[in-house]
Write the structure tokens for this entry.
Amino acid sequence: MNRARLYRILMIVGLIAESAPVQNAAEVRRLTLTGAVHLAISQNRALKIARLKMIENEQKKAGERSEYFPRIANQSNALHATDLENIVIPAGALGTVAGTLVPSQAAGIVQGQKTIFSSGTQISQPLTQLIRIHAANRIAAAEVAASRDDLKNAENQIALQVHALYFGLLIAQLQKQAAEQQTAFAGENLRDSEEDVRNGSALKVAAIEGRAGLLESQQAVLTADLQISDLSTELNDLLGLPLDTQLELDPAVPSSFDQHPREEYVQTAWSENPEILAAEEAVKKARAGITAAKSAYIPDITAYARQSYQDGVPFVVRNFGTFGVNLNWDVFDFGKRRAAVREREAQLEQAEENLRRLKDDVAVRIERSYNKVERTKHMVQVADQVVKLRQESERLAQNELTQGVLLVAERRQATAGAYKARADYLQANLGYLLAWAELEREVGRTPGF
């Protein structure tokens, strides 16, 4: 091939490469555990909805507060009457003057106009209704606090889910490495078995067993790949990232904690757990509801002042002012108010019982989480000892391979065992950390935040 022809081929290849569409690699996002928790709390869609719900209740509270103040309203009317009542004065009704009737003939006096316009601007201030308004404000304030506690509880739950997915992804990645090492060992073992079969030093079943072991190892790799893909997708969705974002997780996670007596955790949870705080706000809301229901027995008294203007109404000045007090009271309603009070009292009993139930439930969950922390801590210690033994076994296998007294397949088996031990240790350690995160959530703190 001469130089000119080679040059033309290279030019064609270059043009094809330039015209080919460029495939953008998926974005790689590097994350630490703390960074993942912060990212989820700031971008998770469920938490955004919870924050909007809190803003909604805050605006509702602002609307209830405005009921304390006077209200200025205008009412205007324009109407047309089809007919008017006139005053008719008969002839001579006022007597006679020099023999002439007064009036000389019947006369009609028009009463106003058929088209009438009226407008009034009134300022009114509720008086006895302030009791009910105050109760409504207490209810609205309780709803704001409850929505804030619900948001905190949702943040704690999202942070715990981040921990679970983050740890699960790290474990799956290490399990995949262990499975790849096991696959390499199975491949070496299969080649040795086939060689032994050809040499007549082993039965054919040995090769079949080796091939089955290789397939099982490959299946383990594929299973780990699928698990990594699923966990990555779930974690991306939880963090509010594009689903195809490639995550590079930092395996260095905090592993030392200050452990306190379990009774201290229970007392802290009763004062900080958002579920309990929300239940306490429900009790306050129910009590305010009883006050609002009882206020229905009090007459509604409103002070007002009004400036009115009219055009078309007879015997009434165009501009005039009025002021006074308005009273509105239901004398008898066939037990409706009494039933409302009893309904609110039942709601208060429900809220108080629910608060007691939640306190007991949180105490049970803390007991369970505390015991889980203790158990997983011992599991980490055992797994650490296994890792040390497997690493020593791998070191000895490497030495024996160097000395020629050990096969490569057996060396790979020792390496695969060391990887598996590390995966088990990581799983035990991350299980311990996840137990701590669950305990933090039960207490009312955001794990990793």
The radius of gyration is 42 Å. The domain at 27-73+151-296+335-443 is CATH 1.20.1600.10 (Outer membrane efflux proteins (OEP)). The beta strands are 28-31, 71-80, 87-89, 96-97, 100-101, 107-109, 115-126, 246-249, 300-311, 319-328.
